[in-house]
Structures are given as structure tokens and as C-alpha cells.
Design brief:
With 357 residues, the protein is of the alpha/beta class. It folds into 2 domains: 18-36 and 261-350, Aspartate Aminotransferase, domain 1, CATH 3.90.1150; 39-260, Type I PLP-dependent aspartate aminotransferase-like (Major domain) (Aspartate Aminotransferase, domain 2, 3-Layer(aba) Sandwich), CATH 3.40.640.10. Helices cover 37% and strands 17% of the residues. The chain has helices at 39-51, 63-73, 85-96, 113-120, 138-145, 168-175, 189-192, 230-239, 247-258, 260-282, 305-314, 339-350, and strands at residues 26-27, 80-83, 102-108, 125-129, 150-156, 180-185, 206-211, 224-227, 287-289, 296-301, 317-318, 320-321, 331-335. Strand 9 (287-289) and strand 10 form a beta hairpin. The termini are far apart.
Length: 357
């Protein structure tokens, strides 16, 4: 029996999301927090585990968690949907808008899952190249959006892997269009301090997604949320998987919200270290770091990216090699770690390259 006859032909060229994980001691490749939960929160997590009833399904609407989120960000809980990371929620957005007359747009380069989801759900899409400084070119975007009757625009704010914030004026121009839904992926909001969340009430065509994976250090439990107009929330709930967020993730996310002040020094440390690492990279004559508002730094080198990546890895430090033809040629990305981890990275990147640290 030939199984391929049953598969979708349009997925034949789609590759699964995959990241190589060679042996390493210091992991600075995935934009994770370098800090595990502090002991005082871990103790509360252990207490909470004892209260959970694992033989029962979780709250299907995550009502208590949505209530906690609504209090944290000051929006009505009926505008909030939670999911297994913001990825799951972005996939639902593609599902509810997957129509023959809808086209998706996202910049290039950006978060690779936008393209993958567009292909998976059969949504026609266009990737619009960023400018030489990784900026949105407003006239280009308006020109493309004018061509189609219904548009979905996916923008990471700040962008990944470039780390920069896009022009607010251009975002407002996109948001003002009656033929366009704007999805802002604010996964790195806690590091940028910039958000469009307050505009959700004024603009029914604005959807904001966020995650607990980055600043809150919960990448391991996969919890994110979206905020949108009630009509969008209603449609998303139609396609959302039953019991999509397990009891444990709901409980831990609520504890993080309760004790989030304890985590603020971690975020401050990352911001301080981000500046220090950036300044040190600027001082390397063959390295051009990109100004960033996230918890990572994209940098371009005049040396072959593979050479830099392997040299850093030989010191036990894993970063992300993003080099490919175009804007990301000879570009690599390093996540901001602890001071000690960052020192190891800085030593590794300059060792044997004729530069002093």
C-alpha cells in the first residue's frame, strides 16, 4: 500500500520545525530565560501539585487563569484565550481566517512558524522583505495590502530573530485599514516595554499574543495567551482543542502571576547584561550587533558564520546560526544568559580571532 496517495500534496515540501542541539554546556540559542524559578516559587509549585486532581480533566476554559491574566493586564477576561504557548493560539488564528479570499503577510526574516502555519492551513501568503536595517518599509506594505480584499498581517513586536521594534506609525497605518487583521506577537514585551495591547478595545481588527515562556521562565510548561475582540475569541473557542491547557500549566502560570514581582530582578538583570554584551560586541571590529529590544542579540560578522558558530561551540557555548543568503547572511543570534554564561560566550567568540576580551 502506498501511503503517499493519502497525503496532502501541498505539504510535500514542508519541513518540520527543527533545531539542531549539538553537545554544549551553556545554552544560548533559544531565547529562553537563563533563570529557573526561585526557591520561594518552587515551594509554592510543590504545594500546588499536592492539591491537583490528575484523574480529572482540567478546567476547559481556564477560567481562573484567564481571571488572573485579566487582572495582570487590565482587560476583561472574556477577551482572553489561553493555550499551549502562543504558538497554539497563532495556529487557531490561521484556522479561523483560512478562507479562499484571505491572504497572510509577514516580514522576512521573522518567526518561522508564521510561514509553517500558513502552509499547514492552506492560507496563501506573501513574505515582504525587511529594509536594510530590518525595518518595515511602509509604502511597500501598503502597496501589497492594496492588492487583496482581506489581509492577515503577522508581526512579531519585537521581531524575532532581529530583536528590533517596528515603526509605530507604520503599525497604526496597517491597523487603520478596514480590510486587514493585525496580529501582534508580543512574546518579548517584558524586555521592550512597548505594547499595542491598550488599543484592542478601540480596534476590533487587532489581536495581541503573549507568552509566559520568555521573561517568566516558563518555557517548559508551554503557556501563552491572546487578547482580542469577543467575536474573534468566540471563533477561536470553536476550533480550540478541548482541555487544551493542562491542570499543572494552569496552576503554575497562576502562581507566576501572583509572585511576578519576585521575577522582576531577573528581567532587570537580562536588560543590564544585554547592554553589556551588546557593547562588547560593538568593540569587535568584525562584528556588527543589531540594536535590540528583546532578550537576544542578532549580530552579523565579516567572518564566515559557520566558523564563528563552531569556534563558540568548541568552548561549550551554543548559539543560533541563522546565516542564509540575503539579509541574514553571516548572521548569528545569542540569547542573553547569566553574567557568567555571557562571559563564557564573550571569551569564546574572541578566542583565537586576534581580539582581546
Amino acid at each position: 500500500m502506498e501511503l503517499k496517495q493519502f497525503f496532502r500534496a501541498d505539504l510535500s515540501e514542508l519541513s518540520p520545525y527543527h533545531v539542531e542541539q549539538p553537545d554544549h554546556c551553556v545554552k544560548l540559542d533559544a531565547n529562553e530565560s537563563p533563570f529557573d524559578l526561585p526557591n520561594e516559587i518552587l515551594k509554592e509549585v510543590l504545594k500546588e501539585i499536592g492539591k491537583l486532581r490528575f484523574h480529572r480533566y482540567p478546567d476547559p476554559s481556564s477560567n481562573r487563569l484567564r481571571t488572573a491574566i485579566s487582572g495582570m493586564i487590565n482587560v476583561d477576561k472574556d477577551l482572553v484565550v489561553v493555550g499551549n504557548g502562543s504558538d497554539e493560539l497563532i495556529s487557531y488564528i490561521f484556522q479561523i481566517f483560512a478562507k479562499s479570499d484571505v491572504r497572510a503577510f509577514f516580514p522576512s526574516p521573522t518567526f518561522s512558524m508564521y510561514r509553517i502555519f500558513a502552509q499547514v492551513f492552506g492560507v496563501p501568503f506573501t513574505e515582504i522583505k525587511l529594509g536594510s536595517n530590518f525595518e518595515l518599509v511602509g509604502e511597500t506594505w501598503q502597496s501589497y495590502l492594496d492588492k487583496y480584499p482581506k489581509n492577515l498581517v503577522f508581526l512579531a513586536y519585537p521581531n524575532n530573530p532581529t530583536g528590533n521594534l517596528f515603526s509605530e506609525n507604520i503599525l497604526h497605518q496597517i491597523l487603520s485599514r478596514s480590510d486587514t487583521i493585525l496580529i501582534l506577537d508580543e512574546a518579548y514585551f517584558e524586555f521592550s516595554g512597548k505594547s499595542f495591547l491598550s488599543l484592542v478595545h478601540q480596534h476590533p481588527n487587532l489581536i495581541v499574543t503573549r507568552t509566559f515562556s520568555k521573561a517568566y521562565g516558563l518555557a517548559g510548561i508551554r503557556c501563552g495567551y491572546m487578547v482580542a475582540h469577543p467575536d474573534v475569541v468566540s471563533e477561536v473557542n470553536k476550533v480550540r482543542m478541548p482541555y487544551n491547557l493542562n491542570r499543572f500549566s494552569q496552576a503554575v502560570a497562576m502562581l507566576i502571576i501572583k509572585y511576578r514581582e519576585i521575577l522582576k530582578p531577573y528581567v532587570n538583570s537580562i536588560l543590564e547584561e544585554r547592554k553589556r554584551v551588546y557593547d562588547r560586541l560593538v568593540a569587535i571590529d568584525w562584528c556588527r550587533p543589531i540594536p535590540t529590544d528583546s532578550n537576544f542579540i542578532l549580530f552579523q560578522t565579516s567572518k564566515p558564520a559557520d566558523q564563528v558558530f563552531n569556534k563558540v561551540l568548541s568552548h561549550g557555548v551554543l548559539i543560533r546560526n541563522l546565516s542564509r543568503p540575503g539579509l541574514l547572511e553571516n548572521c548569528l543570534r545569542v540569547t542573553i544568559g547569566t553574567a557568567e554564561e555571557n562571559d563564557q560566550f564573550l571569551h569564546a567568540i574572541t578566542d583565537d580571532f586576534g581580539e582581546s576580551v
